[in-house]
Amino acid sequence: MVYIAFQWGNGQFSFFNGVIRARVGYCGGTKSNPIYRCLGDHTEAIDMDFDPHMITYEFR
Predict the structure, then answer these.
(1) Cβ–Cβ < 8 Å for 41, 29
(2) Which of 3, 26, 37, 38 is exposed most, by the fewest CB atoms within 10 A?
(3) Does residue 29 lie in a domain region?
């Protein structure tokens, strides 16, 4: 899912009913200002706010 987030960008998760907001970025690591082509030891990450009454966190 994270790979998809970086390919689609922030706004593309909005078409899922129940997704309120999605933000992509990098976490962990020691490199200052990582970018997609030069992550260093960072990991791609997604932060997603959703309504659990409309969508679940389960992978199917």
Answers:
(1) yes
(2) 37
(3) yes
